[in-house]
Please model this.
Amino acid sequence: MRVKLLLSYGLVAVITALSVILIFQYTSIGELRSFMLRGGMVGVEDLAGTLEEYYQQNGGWEGVEALLPGGRGMGRMMMGSSIRVADKAGKIVADTQGVSGKRISLLDRSRAVILRDAQNRIIGYLLVEGGMMSGQNSAQLLNRLTQASIWAGVIGGITAVVLALILSNLFLSPLKALIQASQQMAAGNLSVRVPEKGKDE
Model:
């Protein structure tokens, strides 16, 4: 029974650790990437803000390609980068490489800056690759965070297994005492008693 109990606790610990790692990967790192993209670290905050303002003023993305490099506006500051703008459904509405109509992948969406309107609703995605986006500092930071999430999951899993071992001994000690007493009674010692410890089972 102890082995089964430990295995069940261990399975829960492993699943929990893996869940922590996966959730961190797909939420925290994505949010951090988006924060870095929109901040001074990679310098696309102005472009993202301009695109959001354009959408709200025009009620849509028609003509937005004029804001990208080669057109007017903040896009000129990002020459050398591949920039794609997609609507909320992921359909590309402007692309410095001349591609439009296709859809960005779910992976691209997780790496993109999420564009929102005044009511905080998603109105599109801004995906910048190359140029300032290819800096090694951002990649190194994300790699370190990934490693940190893995170590956190491993340490959490080991801690959970150790606690499972302690708790299983604690939970099984009354049962062990009952088994020993029943064995003595089966051998003819009817005077054996098991002391009560608490008011549970």
